[in-house]
Write a structure and sequence with these properties.
Blueprint: H1 3-23, E1 46-47, E2 53-54, E3 72-83, E4 87-97, E5 101-111, E6 118-131, E7 141-151, H2 155-159, E8 162-164, E9 166-182, E10 185-196, E11 206-208, E12 215-227, E13 230-237, E14 251-261, E15 264-272, E16 283-292
């Protein structure tokens, strides 16, 4: 899929989000007016592969975009992850209000390059800021989030032992920027606790025939702001290891994020995803482009 097509599809998600919000009764009826937000550049983070604001693989406590009090913000993103035997392509969009509430949607396509075929998943997310501020309070910013996930075709996940074709992840995240913390540069730290039944983030279904219990996993990120708009960081994400047919390893990456301005950012990373569906040592590159209103 070429970049122009990805951007077009992502923009369609943005245009659809206000309608979805009204359908579920979660925002006021008047149509949002978008303007360049009041928050500091880079404080919205990037967009994860699951559509919520954060790093590449870990949701942070930040709310997407740059909208502050009584301001709206919208984002659209296109992401590719290219490891040895698989390719993950993601398009998505999100809508936020008041630097407190975020709705997101993402479409994942997972190409089985070596085996042949593909898997697909849709993810709908919601996030709400509970307390604190990223920059201006001693308390970290703390958010509660949920992600509803559903796979397209359950045949392969069911064949390898998955119980369901849908599931809900629930997580709580805490993020804080520490000023002048590393050689005079600002440091962002994030910790996330997730309750999940997802196998390989849901692409291989949810739960197993032997167990349908939630697993609690830890996720973490750290980033140094080399300049006001360039960040170098690392991420780590624990994964459940429930399917008997193949080991599921934790994920990690090293990323470089360039927040060109409040409307455009680019994130690149080198990712180590371990064993996926019996294919060991899956390493490769991640690239994501995000546009913000």
């Amino acid at each position: 899929m070429n970049a122009l097509k990805l951007n077009s599809l992502a923009w369609n998600y943005v245009k659809a989000l206000p309608c979805l919000c009204l359908l579920f009764g979660t925002v006021p009826v008047p149509a949002p007016a978008f303007a360049e937000g009041s928050r500091v550049v880079a404080t919205g983070g990037g967009t994860t592969i699951e559509g919520s604001a954060g790093g590449g693989i870990v949701p942070w406590a930040v709310i997407n975009g740059y909208g502050s009090s009584d301001e709206w913000s919208a984002t659209a993103m296109a992401t590719g992850v290219y490891v040895d035997d698989f390719t993950l392509k993601v398009i998505g969009a999100s809508l936020s209000f008041d630097n407190r509430f975020e709705l997101s949607v993402a479409r994942q396509t997972f190409d089985l390059d070596t085996m042949g075929g593909e898997l697909g998943q849709d993810i709908f997310g919601v996030k709400y800021k509970l307390a604190g501020e990223l920059l201006y309070t001693a308390m970290p910013q703390i958010t509660l989030g949920a992600q509803y996930k559903r796979v397209d075709d359950f045949a392969l996940p069911q064949a390898v032992g998955a119980r369901d074709d849908w599931g809900v992840d629930v997580y709580i995240a805490a993020s804080k920027v520490f000023f002048d913390a590393v050689a005079g540069r600002n440091l962002l730290l994030n910790g996330t606790v997730r309750a999940t039944k997802a196998n390989q983030t849901g692409l291989l279904g949810f739960g197993t025939q032997a167990s349908n219990d939630y697993q609690f996993v830890l996720e973490a990120s750290a980033a140094v702001l080399l300049t006001d708009n360039v960040a170098l960081g690392i991420e780590y994400r624990q994964k459940p290891n429930e399917l008997a047919f193949a080991r599921e390893d934790d994920w990690q990456d090293v990323f470089l994020a360039w927040f060109i301005n409040k409307h455009l950012s680019v994130v690149t990373a080198y990712a180590n995803l371990g064993s996926i569906a019996g294919f060991a040592d899956q390493q490769g590159w991640y690239v994501s482009v995000e546009g913000t209103l």
